[in-house]
UniProtKB/TrEMBL annotation:
It holds the Pfam family Ribosomal_60s. One of its GO terms (cellular component) is cytosolic large ribosomal subunit. P1 and P2 exist as dimers at the large ribosomal subunit. The keyword Ribosomal protein applies. This is Uncharacterized protein.
Length: 114
């Protein structure tokens, strides 16, 4: 990934066809030693290709990768019907307020900043 980032920096900096030495110079400026075979592999894969086209084809490939998002959450109404919903919401708010007070009173006998 670091080598790809160096390639992108070189191209965006105006060098349409960076060499292995160019990429190594960029990486060494931030203290990274690049492996010759990885640099040469990247350059062989992108040789003669337009950066914009490479990014577009990469986006198409990433679009097909599952991202692992969660499913939809099912919500069921309380048994008492629509009238019971506001009452249940009010009760849960009261419980939250009570819990907050209990947490703030419990300092275990010492302060963090004493």
């Amino acid at each position: 990934m670091k080598i790809i980032a160096a390639y992108l920096l070189a191209v965006l900096g105006g060098n349409a066809a960076p060499s292995a030495a160019d990429l190594k110079k960029i990486l060494s400026s931030v203290g990274i030693e690049a492996e010759d075979e990885k640099v040469n592999f990247l350059l062989s894969e992108v040789k003669g290709k337009d950066l914009t086209e490479l990014i577009a084809s990469g986006r198409e490939k990433l679009a097909s990768v599952p991202s692992g998002g969660g499913g939809a959450v099912a919500y069921s109404a309380p048994a008492g019907g629509a009238a019971a919903a506001p009452a249940a919401a009010a009760e849960s708010k009261k419980e939250e307020k009570v819990e907050e007070k209990e947490e703030s009173d419990d300092d275990m006998g010492f302060s963090l900043f004493d």
